[in-house]
């Protein structure tokens, strides 16, 4: 148990043992309130997959069991962005920065 005023991670590290501590961290909310639950499910799944599989070499980006949750959240978020007219602003910003993306990120035009 962590001492009063100490970090929840302070007991996770020991000079004799290497351990992975899972700490319940409150993730940020979604841009769209109606997508919060989906985002929380995806975040929880992703953090578990990342720490338990990807970092240990047994998971790949292509083999991520959280993909279905991400698609569900993404669909909800895209609907909310479209509803607010933000989707058009994002498209315009991406179009305006295509050359920079190509130059700095190696993306094709």
From TrEMBL:
Q: Does the keyword Disulfide bond apply?
A: yes
InterPro entries per record:
MDM35_apoptosis (IPR007918)
Which BP terms from GO are recorded? phospholipid translocation
Kindly list the GO molecular function terms attached to this UniProt entry.
Answer: phosphatidic acid transfer activity
* Record key words, sorted: Disulfide bond
Lineage, top-rank taxon, reads Eukaryota
Matching Pfam families: UPF0203
**GO terms under cellular component:** cytosol; mitochondrial intermembrane space; nucleus
Q: Which family does it belong to?
A: Belongs to the TRIAP1/MDM35 family.
Q: What is this protein called?
A: Uncharacterized protein
- The organism named in the record is Bombardia bombarda
